[in-house]
Each structure stands twice: as structure tokens, then as C-alpha cells.
Amino acid sequence: MSFDLLAFTTILAFSQPDYDVKICDLSVVQCQNEITVTVTAYNTLESQTDGSPCMSASGDNICGRKDVVACPKKYHFHTKFEIDGKIYECLDRTASKYGNRIDISFDKDLEGAIKFGKQVKKVMVVDNPY
User: Fold this and answer.
1) Which of 34, 36, 61, 74 is the one with CA 20 to 30 A from 27?
2) Would you say the pTM of this structure is higher than 0.90?
3) In this predicted model, what pLDDT tens digit does every residue of 31-81 receive, in sequence order?
């Protein structure tokens, strides 16, 4: 028995007009832009970065922002990720030893970063500018 995904998604889209479904959440679908990564948190503090914690690897000032992540070099700067329903922009880099990690900037909120900790999550790459 073969499964016709296109027919299924077409039927789903037209038969349930008021039903909000994420196709990538269906067990038979694996989306190319969905990744499973370790997600951690960091702060824009000298003790966690370098001598200029507000200046990201992309050259952007990230202090005061709540939408920034550090990502591996395999993603271009300005790539956007959806994590827990919120959109983040890659403006910083994770250390090369963390090739499968995304690090959310909690700016100066040390307690929030500690509370967030280290989690494995499904993340959507929603916009890759190149």
C-alpha cells in the first residue's frame, strides 16, 4: 500500500478550512527545514563571551535584543529559526565544537538563561537568506 502525500495534504487543506495543522508535525512527514538540535542559553556578559559582549560575530550590536541566536557556521548570518513559536535571527556563532547547537541570547537575564538550561528541541529553519 503506497501513501500519496500530495493527495493527503491537498485533501487535508481543503476538507478542514478551519483546522490549523502543521504538516511537519504529522508522523509521516519529515520536513527538510526541521532540525533537532541542542538549544542552550547565553548572556551578553564578558564572562560568557569576550571583551565586547554586545558586538556579535556578524558585527551587529545584540544587547537589548530578545530575538538573537548563535548558530553553527553551516548557517549563514541572518538565518531565521523558529524555536517554541518564536522567531530568532542568527547573528552570532557557537563554538566550532558545538556543530549541532543553537544558543539563545538572554541578553543580561542571567536567571532566565540558567532556568532555560540545555534542551533538545525540534527547530524550524524558516528563512535562510542565501
Assistant:
1) 74
2) no
3) 668 999 999 999 999 998 888 999 999 999 999 999 999 999 999 999 999
Helices (H), 1-130: 5-15, 110-116
DSSP, residue by residue, 83-115:
ETTEEEEEEEE--TT-TTEEEEE-TT-HHHHHH
For residue 104, the one-letter residue type is I
CA-to-CA separations, 118 to 38, 42, 65, 100, 122, in angstroms, rounded: 7, 10, 21, 13, 13
Domains of the chain: 1-30 (no CATH), 32-127 (2.40.40.10)
Cβ–Cβ < 8 Å for 130, 74: no
Contact (Cβ atoms closer than 8 angstroms) between residue 125 and residue 33: yes
Closest CA to 67 of 40, 90, 95, 101: 90
